[in-house]
Design brief:
The complex is a heterodimer. Chain A is mainly α. Chain A is built from 16 helices and 2 strands. Chain A has a two-stranded antiparallel sheet with strand order 1-2. In chain A, helix 4 runs parallel beside helix 8 and helix 13 crosses helix 14. Classes of the chains: A mainly alpha, B alpha/beta.
Amino acid sequence: MLKIFLHSSFQGCRTMTGRIVRFSLSCVIVITVGFVLLAISSGTIYGTFRWFIAGVFSSLPHFVEFLNRLLPLLLTGAAVLVVFRTGVFNIGAEGQMLMGGITATFIALHFPEIPLLHLCITLLMAALMGGLWGVVPGFIKVVSGVSEVITSIIMNFAGLYVSLYILNHHIKDPEAGYLVSYTLSETARLPQISGLNSGIFVAVGLVLILYFFLYRTPAGFNMRIVGYNRHFARYVGIDVERTEISAQLISGILAGLAGGVEVCGLYGKYLWHYFTGLGFEGIPVALMSGLEPLMLPVSAAFFSYMKTGTYLMGRMSAVTPEVGMIVNGLMVIILASYGFLGFLRMRETSSRRMK
Amino acid sequence: MKLVELENILKVYPNGIVANRYVNFDVRAGEVHALIGDNGAGKTTLMKILAGFEYPTSGVIRVEGRVMKSWNVRKALHNGIVMVHQHFSTVPSLSVLENLILPMRGYFGKARKQAIKKLEELEKILGFQVPLDMKVLELSYGMRQKLEIVKALMMEPRVLILDEPTALLSQDEVMNLFEVVEILKSRGVAVVFISHKLKEVEKIGDRVTMLDKGVKVETFEKSERVFLVPETLNTRAREHTALGEELLKVQELWYIYPCGRTVLKNVSFSVHAGEIVGIYGPEGNGQKELVEILMGLRKYTSGRVEFRGKDMRGLSTADIRRMGISYVPDNKLEVGTAMKGKVWENLVAGIVRTTEFGCLISPRTLRRWARELMELYGIFPDDPDASMYTLSGGNLQKVILARELSSHPMLLIAHSPTKGLDFRTARFVRSKIREIRYDGGVLLISSDLEEISELCDKVYLMSHGELHLVEDLSSFELSRV
């Protein structure tokens, strides 16, 4: 497993040994930098760092927290993966997820409380709204040729403010004392298993379906071909525009579901500040998986592990979460950058002795 | 004196393909050393090793007798070994001067002046002018190839490696290039000339090394070149097959770019089943636009295009392919293949193929199908999962051909199908094209006179967007237009 992971994450490096060297060296650098940073900001380094590294496995609730943080990353990572695989740089997972979340909350609060149906409609609407948010950049590109990078960023802002507007003016709970929606009734909730958001099974299932879709269906095959080479795809008779828009639709649905599942499964209400950022984190998650669906859980787990460790460290020791975030960010930069330690390869080439 | 020496070079690529098997090779000062062999014989790999782009699995590199303990591009440049790659490595949207300065240390001020001064010296030596302010994309292929060489010469090489420099050039441009090579030779620069054309090698090479499937056959001195029998493609007696139904009919086709440039002027022609229709002419006279219009990749301005009596206006590429038209494009790297993909993916790509195999893809069935196809066309390496990057130019063309012909087209549109291919592969491709004529028609667009005259039953001449029927084929073959 580790072998595959290394393979997909460090395609820049040629030999397996080179990859492993690069990976371990990255880890060492990351840990050293993190250690120094923590040493500067806190007195008790050992205790602090232990929380960061081993905190996740210290108790069941902590492990559940880890899984709960993994879930949205898995879905937004899958969303980003689909579009990147098609060669479309729609980075609007953030906006799609926020819209999915707010739609789920809104629908759940207004739909009659019929068991099962209530939940299904809620999640379905979240997915559809995410999909809608996702295809807008695609259509704009077809009509006016504007790059989806720009429009999807704008859609992120639109998603954030539209969701805040709905939250503020239509579903805000005035009793709560802070900006939060009313709590959803039980019929719209996904069950929790000792704190674990059962949506994780949905997410894992969706990732498996995504794998099947990309590798076993003509539509998925066409998406990969478009991602390989747009001109080639057009030349062999693939409708490139349609393929790109459907990739963005699927991506939007996945991101929208991420928002919906978070609301229905974990919080039971729309807590906007817990949501922001999850969509953007999908980008490094997808990249680190090497754009392979089956590697997504590994890469999402890695990110979730880092995140949970950071928060645990913040809660259990004197280190502020911000410092933890800096360490976390550094790790992402170092581990996710393909070119990092590329100079090693050069050295490897030049110092290679001729036999 | 031996400038550089490669000894017992073994190169195994990470995917297990052996590109070079214990090859010895050396270059002497002031000679032209030709390296010949079929596509995929390991010529390019060997030279990439010499220039430091690849490192050998085992073997020794010697520069002036000294064994190099380590080797890379920087060291190669330091020792004066510069390679001009097969594919152009200039930036089309930049000007010629900008392209020449790009690899230098500085860009403005002194460095720029120095570069221009050096360039002027080079121009004096080489005897031609480089249009400094023109953008590279406005240059002809011949000029671009010269520009590549000038760019390499700016680094003051002692060994200049030219990787198939003539693949894209016309006859006159090739002669021009040879003059440049002679000048370099007289100034003591060693030139390694990679080619698969025996005629060229015979003309220019002082020594010739022949590679076959990664193994060195022999190095011949100029005097002992007995083996180099001039090869010509066998001119066949044109067997007349009965003309079948009219497949493609183009009437009064006009194409004008949005910017106002007229590319196709009143083009009319037709292709029947059982014939090969050739369109001959130098590239850039509207051929590319014409085929793209026929394949639905471009909307034409006015006129009428019919396939078997059906108007093709507004049809998508998928529709056109489903009607039974296949297309071998000119640009095999950017249009003809998905280089990032695997071989089998390239073979099955396209709407025709994916629906043929049902609504779900079974990689196993597709791989098996691809393997059969690869065997039929002799594609090497014979692994459907190989990355396209491991294939040589000739094998890429075979992949394209295999894909396009496996749908049994009524009409094949082939644009420069043998450009840059070695003799054997070219002959193979031509025989495949000839086979189609028994069930369908072929529209062959080429700037290779030999190819046109060998294959075609009817030839049109294309110049500046106009099409003229060549009435007398035999005189056409004799007099070069």
